[in-house]
Amino acid sequence: MEKLLAIEALTASYLLFEAGAAQPLGKGAGAVAGRLADVLADRPSAPDLVERARRELRDVVALELPPMAQREGTT
């Protein structure tokens, strides 16, 4: 499932930058698209591309999304 999500995110990132997004991306989408654009620019092999995208997505989630307890206001 994580690989499929990475492939979908890579595809979306590629399409956004090819089309030149008409509106600025939000904080989360912009962070994901920017990181994945960097991965795409390196032109790694397909397996490496997916693995690097998975790592980048994990990093973005860890940095951009507060822990669940903070979102629910329990801390």
Distance between the termini: 31 Å
Tell me, what's the shape?
Answer: globular
- Contiguous runs where pLDDT drops below 50 for at least 5 residues: none
User: How is the quaternary structure best described?
Assistant: single chain
**H and E string:** HHHH
SS field, number of helical segments = 4
Beta-strand residue fraction: under 5%
Protein structure class: mainly alpha
Tally of DSSP β-strands: 0
What is the element layout, followed by pairings?
Blueprint: H1 2-19, H2 27-41, H3 46-64, H4 68-71
Helix pairs in contact: 1-2, 1-3, 2-3
Could you give a short description of this structure?
The chain is mainly α. The protein has helices at 2-19, 27-41, 46-64, 68-71.
Q: Can you put this structure into words, describing what you see?
A:
The chain is mainly alpha-helical and 75 residues long. Helices cover 75% and strands 0% of the residues. The chain is built from four helices and no strands. The chain has helices spanning 2-19, 27-41, 46-64, 68-71. Helix 1 (2-19) packs across helix 3 (46-64) and helix 2 packs antiparallel against helix 3 (46-64). The mean pLDDT is 80.
